[in-house]
Amino acid sequence: MVILDYGSGNLRSAERAVARAGAEVEVTADPQAALEADGLVVPGVGAFSACMSGLLSVHGQRIIGKRLAGGRPVLGICVGMQILFSRGVEHGEETEGTGEWPGTVERLHADVLPHMGWNTVRPPADSRLFAGIDSEERFYFVHSYAARTWELDSGLAGQQPKVTWSNHGEDFVAAVENGPLWATQFHPEKSGDAGAQLLRNWLGTLG
Asked: Coiled-coil intervals in this record (predicted)?
C-alpha cells in the first residue's frame, strides 16, 4: 500500500494510522510503486492550489487516472479529496483540480471558520466505508473549504456514488464512495477508534 508523497505534509500520521490498521505501507512519489500498489492514499493539507501544484509535480493526476481506469483503489483525505473535484476557489483564485468528479470546492458559509474539531456525519445506509461505525461517532475535521453540492449521478465502475454529508453552517460533502475512488473530507488518521475502523474498512476492499 502506498501513500503518495507529493509535498503535501501530514504523511507520517497517515502512514502510522494505515499501518496500525493492518497494512504494509510505503511513502513514496515513485510512479511505478504508486501504480502497482494494492491501494493508494492521497493525503493533503493546506491550500487547494498548493496541493494541486505538488500533485502535478509528481504526475499524481496521471497516477490517479491510470489507477481508476484499471479499477484500482484510491483513497483521498482532506485536501486530497478536494483536488478530485473539477476546481477549487480560494481567495478569489480558481485552480483546476483533477476532474475525477464534477463540482467546485469553495468556502463554507459558516459563522466560524475554519471548521475545526469533531463532528458527526450522515452516511447512506449501504455505505461500506462506515460499516460497523455507530451513527453517533464523530470524526476530526480541519477545513474552511468543501464541496457544498454533489453533481455526479452515475459513478465509476457502473456503481451509484455513495455520498456522506456533514454540517457546519451548511451541509457539505464529508465522504464519497465511487467505485474504486473513495475519499473523506475529515482526517480518519486523527479520528480515534472510528477513524481506525474506517481505514480497516477501506483496506478490507483491496484485492
From this structure: none
* Beta-bridge partners for 74: 40, 181
Residue pair 78/44 in contact (Cβ under 8 Å)? The answer is yes
Q: Please tell me which residue in 115, 143, 168, 187 is annotated as part of the active site.
A: 187
Angle value at C-alpha 62, between 40 and 141, nearest 5 degrees = 45
Question: In which residue ranges of the chain is pLDDT below 50?
Answer: none
Helices (H), 42-144: 48-57, 60-69, 79-82
pLDDT digits (tens, 9 = 90+) for 100-118: 999 999 999 999 999 999 9
Of 100, 106, 177, 189, which residue is the catalytic one?
189
Respond yes or no: is residue 78 known to be catalytic.
yes
Catalytic residue among 78, 106, 115, 168: 78
Residues 6 or more apart from 14 whose CB is under 8 A from it?
3, 41, 43, 77, 189
Helices (H), the chain: 11-20, 31-36, 48-57, 60-69, 79-82, 192-203
For residue 7, count CB atoms less than 10 angstroms from its CB and return exposed for 0-12, middle for 13-18, buried for 19 or more: middle
Active-site annotation holds for 51: no
